[in-house]
Prior knowledge:
This protein is mostly helical. It contains eight helices and three strands.
Amino acid sequence: MSRLDLSDQAKKILDRETQALEREAAVLEEKATSAASVLTAVCGLMNSRGRYFAVTGEHFSVQDYDGLMVIDFLDEQVLKHAYRILKNYVEHENRRPNEIGISIIAEKLLPSIKEMPKYPVGYRLLYTIRKAFEQFESVIGSGSGVDVAELEGAFVHHILGVIDKYVQTRVRHGVRHFSEVAREYDFVTRMKCKCGDGQFQVKLQALVQEEGKAYDRLDLECKACGHQRSITFDLPNFKDLYES
Ligand SMILES: [Zn+2]
């Protein structure tokens, strides 16, 4: 994600919170030895969103470039850590999930997954996963006849599948381009102009190459007051992001 135009304060928050997430993820991962504790780890990571949202909000509007960039980048980090913890557990466990458990979870949870856009931005995915956890609680509560540990195992596979689908839109060549464009336009819809409520429209989108680096530049105009500004997005290597 672009750090090109971020203010020093935004970079500072980003660095500090990225490190905090890494430490948290390491602690959670160490304890993630069962399906239940893997789910606890994913929840713990998602709960840290409250903290970095508050920290960022102290300095920036979460409707402006710096604030949105910091939050989006940290959301990606949360997903990256969750993905790694889920994947490592599933690979290490190397066991097919309970078939009935999988079908129960798919039946209850798939509708909300289907509501997700084709190229979701991190926060949309986190919202969907949060909702899936709530629905999972009600599956447990409704007494399906399947052992809770088996259901948890099936749910781990389900969440991994959801995040994996998202990761593929970020790392696969050809698809990534559409994912980037969708992300940039989504970003713009969340921005508000300083005039008050004005939303921006994209006047021009351009790929810029500079000193061996490529980035997207979007020229924006406020629909209300006509204020013009440009914002930039790095075209990052998300493959690295998820394989590191
Ligand atoms: Zn305006």
